[in-house]
Amino acid sequence: METELSKRLGVEHAIFGFTPFPAVAAAITRAGGFGVLGAVRYTAPGDLARDLDWMQDHTDGLPYGLDVVMPAKKVEGVTEADVEAMIPDGHRRFVAKVLAEHGVPPLADGEASGWRITGWMEEVARGQLDVAFDYPVKLLANALGPPPADVVDRAHRHGVLVAALAGSARHARRHAEAGIDIVVAQGYEAGGHTGEIASMVLTPEVVDAVAPLPVLAAGGIGSGEQIAAGLALGAQGVWLGSIWLTTTEADLHSRALTAKLLAAGSGDTVRSRALTGKPARQLRTEWTDAWDDPEGPGALPMPLQGLLVADAVSRIQKYEAEPLLGTPVGQIVGRMTAERPVREVFDDLTRGFERAVTRLDRIAKRSRS
Amino acid sequence: METELSKRLGVEHAIFGFTPFPAVAAAITRAGGFGVLGAVRYTAPGDLARDLDWMQDHTDGLPYGLDVVMPAKKVEGVTEADVEAMIPDGHRRFVAKVLAEHGVPPLADGEASGWRITGWMEEVARGQLDVAFDYPVKLLANALGPPPADVVDRAHRHGVLVAALAGSARHARRHAEAGIDIVVAQGYEAGGHTGEIASMVLTPEVVDAVAPLPVLAAGGIGSGEQIAAGLALGAQGVWLGSIWLTTTEADLHSRALTAKLLAAGSGDTVRSRALTGKPARQLRTEWTDAWDDPEGPGALPMPLQGLLVADAVSRIQKYEAEPLLGTPVGQIVGRMTAERPVREVFDDLTRGFERAVTRLDRIAKRSRS
C-alpha cells in the first residue's frame, strides 16, 4: 500500500495507527505501518522518555510518531487553579450525585488522578516536546488543530513532519496556512473529537481544500475494505485509532471496559461533550447520558469540563463502575468483536485492501496483471 | 461499472439515481444508469400513469424503477381526519407564528397543498402500485422499510425486484427476512430519513448482515471517487439522490431554492424532525431551527408532523420565503456548485470511478492491463 507519503516516511503501508500504548504503537510500526504514540497522558517528562526509549528498542529502526494535544492559541498567565475556580458548585454537586447513585468510592487520600493535570495544558505539551525532539520521531500530530508556529518551526528544523486533525475543509485550510505538512480528515464517525461531516463527504473535501498537501482519512476505518474506500476518496493514507483498543497489546487497565468494547455495536457510541466539553465520540454510558440529559446541568465548555470530571473518570475506571465506564471510540467499535494481536489485525487490513482492489478491478472490468 | 446486480437488471453502470422528476430519471437511465422515480407526490393515479407513459417514451427500452413510501404495518381504519384531530392547537399556533414572522401569505382559497395528502398513506401508495404494475418497471423501492408482504409477492409475480432502505444492520436483516431483494444502506450523511451510522461503517455492516443479498451504498455519494469507495465497502451498486437536484432537468419550481442548494456547504444540512416527525437530513433553515429550538414546541411524531406542516411547506415554497425555504438533501450538497445536465454529471461519475480505480491499482502496485 504505497503512496507518496508512505514513501516519504519510509513505511511499507500507508496505515497510520494512533494509540496511547507504546506496545501497540511499536507493533504497528513493526508490522509495516506507522505507529503514532498518544502523549496526552504523560504528565511527567521522565515517563515519556522512558517509553520512547522502549519504543526505540522495539521498532527495529522503523519510523514512528507522537501525538500531542496543544492549543494553537496560548492563554497567557492562566493556571489550573484559575480554571478550577471557574467551575460552578452545582456542576460539582452533580458529579458527586451521579457517582454516589452508582456507589463509586472516592480515591484514596493523596491518590492523584492520572487525568488531573492533562496534557492539553500548553506547558505540559511543551515539556513533552522537549523530550520528543531527542528521539528520532518522524511525525508530530496535534489533535487540536495546528500547534503554535514556533513548534511547527522547531519540528521542521528537526526534520519532523507535522500533522493536524481537521473536521471540516475550512479548518483544514487554516491548518495548511499554519504550515503543517499533513491533514488528518477526521469524520463524524470517528472516536474522540469530531465534527458533523462524515468521512465519505469530508475526505475528498479536505483533499481538494489543501492540495497538494497529503491527507489521511480518519473515522470509520477498521478493515482493509474501509482503507480502500478512504484511499479511493483521495487520501494518501488512513489514520486508525479505535481498532487497536481491543488488541492484546493494549492495556486498558479494565477487563470490564474491554468487555464493553467487544460487546458494543456501531450504534452504541454517542458524540457527547461529557468528556472534555467539546463533542467527542465515545461509548454511550449512563455517564454520558447524565451529561446529555436536558434535565441535567449539561457539560461545561472546554477546558472546564475536563478538569471537572478528571477525578470522577479516574474513580469510574479504578472501581470499574460498569454502567458509567466508557472510552472514546468510533462507530467502528461494532467490528471489534475479539481481542487479537496487532500483527493479526494489521495483516487483515492489508489483505482486505488487496481484496477490495481486486473486486474494484473486476467491477471496472480490468484484469489483474 | 459492472456488478452481478447491474447485469441482472441489464444496466451498463451500477449507479442508481433516485429523483422525483421523470425527466431526471429518464436521463439517468439513458446515460447508462438506473433511474428510480420517486412516486410520493403522485396523489392522483392518473398523474403517475401520465408520467410513466412519458418515461416509456424517453428511456429507449432501458430499465428504470419506482420508489414508493409505504409503511410495512397497516393501521386499520385510521383516516387523515383522525390524524389531523391528534395535532395539538399549540403546534398549529406555532406554525402560524413562524410563518407570520416571515410574512408568508396564505394559500388562495381552495388551493390544495401538493403535500397535503401524502403518499405515505397506504391507500395512496397502493393506488400508485396499481398503476405501476401496468408498466415494465424493473425495481420497486420503499423508503420506509419493506413493503407489506402481499406487495412484495405481487412485485415478484410481475418479475419486479424489491428494494428497501435501511439505516442499520438490524433493520437490514428485518428487511431481508421480509423477502426483499436489495437493501439500500442509507448512511447518516444522506439526504432524507437517515439513522446515525455513517456510510463508511454502515455499508459493510449491512453487506455482511444480509449476504448474499445485494446492497446499494447510499449517503455521501456524488462523485466517481465516492462511488469507488461505496463499492470498495462491498456494495453492488450506489444509490444517489441529492446530486440530481441541481441538474438542468430537475424542476424544483423555485430559483431561490436552487440558488440555496448551489451555495450550501457540506455543513449546511441538519438531521431534523421538522419535515416528517422522523429525523431526515435537509438544508438547515430558519424553519428547521424553529422546530429544533429547545424553547419551541418541538416536532410531532410521524405522521402528525407531516400533516401539520404540509400547508406551511407549500406556502414557503410558493412564496419563496427564502430564510425558511429548504429541501431534503445530503451532506454532498457542498459539491453541488453548478447546474449541469444529467448526462454531464453521469459521465463525471463514471470517469471519476475509473480514475479512483487507477489510483488504487497504483497504490496496490498493480499495473493496469
Automatic annotation (TrEMBL), chains A, B:
What GO molecular-function term can you cite, just one? nitronate monooxygenase activity
Alphabetical keyword list: Flavoprotein, FMN, Monooxygenase, Oxidoreductase
Q: Does the keyword Methyltransferase apply?
A: no
Q: Which domain of life is it from?
A: Bacteria
Has UniProt tagged this entry with the keyword Acetylation? no
One Pfam family here: NMO
This chain's protein is named: Nitronate monooxygenase
